[in-house]
UniProtKB/TrEMBL annotation:
<keyword id="KW-0479">Metal-binding</keyword>
<keyword id="KW-0813">Transport</keyword>
<protein>
    <recommendedName>
        <fullName>Group 1 truncated hemoglobin</fullName>
    </recommendedName>
</protein>
<dbReference type="InterPro" id="IPR019795">
    <property type="entry name" value="Globin_bac-like_CS"/>
</dbReference>
<dbReference type="InterPro" id="IPR016339">
    <property type="entry name" value="Hemoglobin_trunc_I"/>
</dbReference>
<keyword id="KW-0408">Iron</keyword>
<keyword id="KW-0349">Heme</keyword>
<dbReference type="Pfam" id="PF01152">
    <property type="entry name" value="Bac_globin"/>
</dbReference>
<dbReference type="InterPro" id="IPR009050">
    <property type="entry name" value="Globin-like_sf"/>
</dbReference>
<comment type="similarity">
    <text>Belongs to the truncated hemoglobin family. Group I subfamily.</text>
</comment>
<dbReference type="InterPro" id="IPR012292">
    <property type="entry name" value="Globin/Proto"/>
</dbReference>
<keyword id="KW-0561">Oxygen transport</keyword>
<dbReference type="InterPro" id="IPR001486">
    <property type="entry name" value="Hemoglobin_trunc"/>
</dbReference>
Length: 124
């Protein structure tokens, strides 16, 4: 792990983020706890927004121009999204990065960055 490199650079950049998002959403949509939140969603648009968000969140070039996390998830929180759902998402992200052979310190960094958004995403 190189201290002066962003997580984005250490993960392998745009290509790795794209692979991560694709596998991640396969896992999320296969999860009966999470799947109901994604019914009737434009998944290609969502995946595109997620890729741009992760590039930015992981320290890559600022590609995200969507709504802030609180506004982007308001509808999901209104439908009952809770810590249990957020924890499931974190697990799927970690499982995805594990499947892509990402080293544990980088997986932990990705988890910490994602978990730092918990309060905003859950509208607290």
């Amino acid at each position: 792990m190189h201290q002066n490199q962003s997580l984005y650079e250490q993960l392998g950049g745009e290509e790795m983020v794209s692979k991560t998002v694709t596998i991640f959403y396969q896992k999320v949509l296969a999860d009966s706890l999470l799947r109901p939140f994604f019914e009737n969603m434009n998944m290609s648009r969502l995946e595109s927004m997620q890729r741009a968000f992760l590039v930015t969140a992981f320290g890559g070039p600022n590609a995200y121009s969507g709504r802030d996390m609180r506004r982007a998830h308001t509808r999901l929180v209104a439908r009952g999204m809770s810590d249990a759902h957020f924890d499931a998402v974190l697990t799927h992200l970690d499982d995805t990065l594990t499947e892509l052979n990402v080293a544990k310190p980088l997986r932990d960094w990705a988890r910490a960055l994602t978990d730092s958004l918990r309060k905003d995403i859950l509208g607290r």
